[in-house]
Amino acid sequence: MKKVTISSLQAQKQSAEKIAALTAYDASFAKLFDEQNIDVLLIGDSLGMVLQGQDDTLAVTIDDIAYHTRAVRRGTQRAFVIADLPFMSYATPNQTYSNAAKIMAAGASMVKLEGGQWLCETITGLVQRGVPVCAHMGLTPQSVHVFGGFKVQGRHQEKAEQMVEEAIAVQNAGAQLLVLECVPSSLGKRISEELTIPVIGIGAGKDTDGQILVMHDMFGISANYMPKFSKNYLVETGDLRKAVKKYISDVRSGAFPSTAHSFE
Ligand code: KIV
Ligand code: NA
User: Fold this and answer.
1) Using CA positions, which residue lies closest to atom 3 of ligand 1?
2) Partners of 199 in beta bridges
3) Ligand whose nearest atom lies closest to the CA of 200
4) Which atom of ligand 1 is nearest to the CA of 141?
5) Residue to mutate, 45, 177, 211, 226, ligand 1, most ligand atoms under 8 Å from C-beta
6) Which residue positions are annotated as catalytic (predicted)?
7) Strand pairing partners for 83?
8) What is the reported pLDDT for 132?
9) What is the pLDDT of residues 58-74, one digit of tens each?
10) Sites in the chain below the pLDDT cut of 50
11) CB of 89 closer than 6 angstroms to any ligand 1 atom
C-alpha cells in the first residue's frame, strides 16, 4: 500500500484526480475511513462541536487536538493526517512553534491554520522549521464572532478579489494545501485554478481539487446543526462502510457536491 503524501496529493491535482477527505477523531473511524482509501484525514477543531457539543470551536485546546491526533494516528496506515491548530494557539511565533511541535509529535503530518495574508510570516516560519502547512480560508469558524455567524464568505466582488490575492499570498508563503470553506462555487473554481497547490473545498462548489466533510455530517448524526453543503450518506446506504465508499466515489466522480450542496 502506498501512503498518501503531500507529493501524491500534489500529483492528484496535476492529474485532476479529486482528493477525498473527512474529519476523524478516533482510531476506529480513522481505520474504517483508511480502509476505504480516504486520501486525507483531518483532526478538526470541529471536535468542539461534534464531540463536545459546544456551539462553536473556540474552547478547543491544543491538548484536545493532540489527544485525538494520537488516536487517529494509531488507526491510520495510508491516509495523510492533518491536525488543526485551535483558536489562539498560533497568535505569536513562539506559541505557534511549540503548539505545532505538540501536534506533529502526536502524529500529524501537517498543521492547519485559519487565515490569509496575516498568516504569511507564520506559515514561512513553520515550513522553515519542518512543519508543513495547510491554510484555511473563506468561512474560518474561529472568527465566527467577527463574522457575526456562520456565513458564506466572498459573495461581493471586492471581497472575492481580496480572497484570491490572499490565497496566492499564503501559497507563496509556503502553504502546501488550502481548505476553502463556504464560498460561492465560482470563487471556489477561480481560486482552485489560480493556485498550483491543491484546494480542498467544503461548501465551495464542485470545482475545487477535493472535498472534505465533517464525518458526523456525512453520517447525518451531528448533535446540533446540519449545514446545507453537507450530505447524509448513511441514510441512502444504511451502512457505515458503504456510506464512506459512496462519499469517496461521489467526490472522485464529481457527483458530490451538486448545486443543492453549493452556494451560487
Ligand atoms: O474543524 C474542521 O472539521 C475543519 C473542516 C470543516 C475543514 O476545519
Ligand atoms: Na477546523
Assistant:
1) 44
2) 178
3) 1
4) 8
5) 45
6) 181 (proton acceptor)
7) 43, 111
8) 98
9) 999 999 999 999 999 99
10) none
11) no
